[in-house]
Design goal:
Keywords: Membrane, Transmembrane, Transmembrane helix. This is DUF4175 domain-containing protein. It is built from one helix and no strands. It is mainly alpha-helical and 50 residues long. It has one domain.
Length: 50
């Protein structure tokens, strides 16, 4: 494999980790928002989903 191929593999792995990290953060924020809603819904008079 040439050095261009090695650079491309490293770059693709870096971008894959960045995309995975973004989706992981998005999932964590969704869980936090859902948890806050689930805890606050009875006090606000809103229905719970579960």
């Amino acid at each position: 494999m040439s050095w261009i191929g090695i650079v491309l593999v490293i770059l693709c792995l870096y971008l894959a980790f960045k995309v995975a990290g973004f989706f992981f953060k998005l999932l964590l924020w969704a869980l936090v928002i859902f948890g806050i809603y689930w805890l606050a819904a009875p006090y606000l008079g809103l229905p719970r989903f579960f």
